[in-house]
Write a structure and sequence with these properties.
Blueprint lengths: L1 H7 L10 H41 L4 H6 L1 H6 L11 H16 L3 H9 L5 H11 L5 H10 L6 H8 L2 H8 L13 H6 L1 H18 L10 H13 L10 H10 L8 H8 L6 H9 L7 H6 L2 E4 L2 E4 L7 H32 L2 H12 L6 H12 L4 H9 L14 H24 L4 H9 L4 H29 L3 H6 L7 H10 L4 H25 L9
Length: 539
């Protein structure tokens, strides 16, 4: 009975556990060991390949600098009518934002970002950063004249700081102390000035390591205080220094000074330009399609998407030129590389190895040196033109323009990328048995027929591999087109490099790179549908 039961039960391993469970555990351990072996490679690929691509895609739509640098202004502009200038409340919000941004050295970065959309924004924000210190100065003087307590940092800290924070700060006037916490009553009855004081206090603590209770606030704070006292009712306020606030509320009605709009007009007349405000409003969202629109010669305006001015439409032309010239370079490499690879694969090993060294020789020379050599060879007073003139092919006064144009780029890049076509072809051709050609000829085929119907189809996988290598490398080249391409022979990659290193418009560079990546993926998909990626071999 026991033997029958054991035969009808689950099969057991040597240790007594069910065999199925034991096999699953062993398979799981094997997979974990395999994963541990490839984990360093996976991490390397994630860090050096996947992460940069993800970062590029994010930068192409990221636009948080406007909303982070001008948070109050962005909120105040939500109900703005673009047909008229913003209200004083918007200008006041701009004053508080720019004051804090100038202290944190962020206003110039914001100006540079918006300057990509509207020329002059960079200089406008630089001038505003220098002049915003004076906004509210006339109100500050009148408050000081009204009562010297308005000039006392401890008094202001008592009004706008949380009672517990004020007690903690009074014990240490030398350092920044605890992080600022605002008074609830101040936020209720004096919202603008409470927010302005909070901005001042946190900036003083974080940047200067100073105690706000021992420092006089910015002039923009007094502008906010004047607006609170003249626009809101403080009769219900019963917090610290209530009598001082009630007296100031009465006196502030008669204060005379530049309002927010007039103060910005005094800094720069451009702040009365609707286009400036329309640009800020259009790019206030944390994410934008503006970079991608600019990359296809469009622009984002308050009226919607519009075409760029005709003299600024360059990117679609560059994309078209990059694709067509890369295809031309690829085809030239096929035409020039196929006979060389065929010769190398059919010569004796001693001779083919010697010639193969000549093919690899360019890899041992700097790319910059090779490109510079072509500049010497192809210029109008260069070696190529001199030889043509000596042979009588061209007249001395009609030398060919072989450099600083598309022809120069194609010649130089074909020479540089030709080894990447020869090597895959050679490796595939070496695997084709010579007996196949002899068999075809023995059956009556001519040399050309045997090559066309027997040899060439077997070499197609090498052509496919070489085409992919050459095309992908060509489409991303920028050093050679920059040196020999001139105005008409540069690629889209040259513009990407310009925006990364010179104009610092990383968002547009990321958008151009993303579109280029998408084009390559589309062409790869078409290649797979037409040729088949499974037919690509390296030998």
């Amino acid at each position: 009975m026991s033997d029958a039961a054991s035969q009808n039960g689950p099969m057991l391993a040597a240790d007594g556990t069910p065999l199925k469970r034991s096999l699953a555990r062993a398979l799981r351990a094997q997979k974990l060991r395999a994963l541990a072996l490839i984990a360093p490679l996976l991490v390397f690929i994630l860090v050096t390949f996947i992460a940069p691509i993800v970062d590029m895609l994010f930068r192409s739509v990221e636009n948080q600098i406007v909303s982070e640098t001008l948070p109050r202004t962005v909120i105040a502009l939500e109900d703005w009518d673009p047909s008229d200038l913003p209200s004083d409340a918007v200008y006041a919000a701009l004053a508080y934002d720019v004051m804090e941004a100038s202290e944190r050295r962020l206003h110039t970065r914001l100006g540079s970002r918006l300057n990509y959309e509207t020329t002059g924004m960079s200089s406008l924000f630089r001038r505003t950063g220098r002049g915003v210190d004076d906004v509210g100065e006339d109100f500050a003087e009148q408050f000081h004249d009204l009562d010297p307590m308005w000039e006392d940092p401890a008094t202001l800290a008592a009004i706008y700081g949380d009672p517990d924070w004020v007690v903690a700060q009074s014990a240490d006037l030398d350092g920044p102390g605890e992080r600022f916490a605002s008074n609830a009553q101040a936020r209720q009855f004096l919202p603008e000035s409470a927010d302005a004081y909070r901005s001042f206090a946190l900036t003083i603590q974080q940047l200067d390591d100073d105690n706000p209770a021992a420092e006089e606030p910015w002039n923009t704070f007094y502008l906010a205080l004047w607006r609170d006292l003249t626009l809101l009712d403080q009769t219900g306020y019963d917090g610290p220094n209530a009598d001082l606030i009630q007296a100031a509320a009465i006196a502030a009605q008669d204060f005379d000074g530049l309002g927010p709009r007039a103060a910005f007009e005094d800094i720069d007349d451009d702040w009365l330009d609707l286009e400036i405000w329309a640009t800020i409003d259009a790019f206030s969202d944390p994410y934008t399609a503006g970079y991608f629109l600019a990359a296809i010669d469009l622009q984002l305006t308050p009226q919607g998407v519009e075409a760029q001015p005709e003299d600024q439409r360059i990117y679609l032309l560059l994309f078209q030129r990059t694709i067509l010239m890369s295809l031309a370079i690829m085809m030239l490499c096929v035409l020039l590389g196929y006979p060389v690879a065929y010769l190398l694969s059919n010569l004796p090993s001693r001779t083919s190895n010697l010639l193969l060294i000549l093919v690899l020789l360019p890899f041992w020379t700097s790319l910059l040196v090779r490109t510079s050599a072509w500049k010497v060879l192809l210029q109008q007073q260069g070696v190529v033109n001199d030889v043509l003139v000596w042979l009588g092919v061209v007249a001395d006064g009609a030398r060919l323009a072989l450099i600083n144009n598309q022809l120069g780029t194609v010649i130089a890049m074909t020479h540089i990328l030709l080894p990447f076509m020869i090597l895959p072809l050679f490796s595939v051709m070496k695997t084709i048995p010579p007996s196949y050609m002899r068999a075809a000829k023995s059956l009556g085929a001519t040399n050309f027929t045997a090559f066309r119907r027997v040899y060439f189809p077997q070499s197609v996988p090498g052509i496919g591999a070489g085409c992919i290598l050459v095309f992908i490398l060509a489409i991303g080249y920028y050093i050679t087109p920059e040196l020999v391409g001139g105005r008409t022979g540069t690629f889209i990659s040259n513009r990407i490099a310009f925006h990364i290193s010179s104009s610092l418009n990383w968002g547009l560079a990321a958008a151009l790179g993303s579109i280029l990546l998408a084009l390559v993926l589309v062409l790869y998909w078409l290649y797979d549908r037409i040729v088949g990626i499974d037919n690509v071999k390296l030998g």
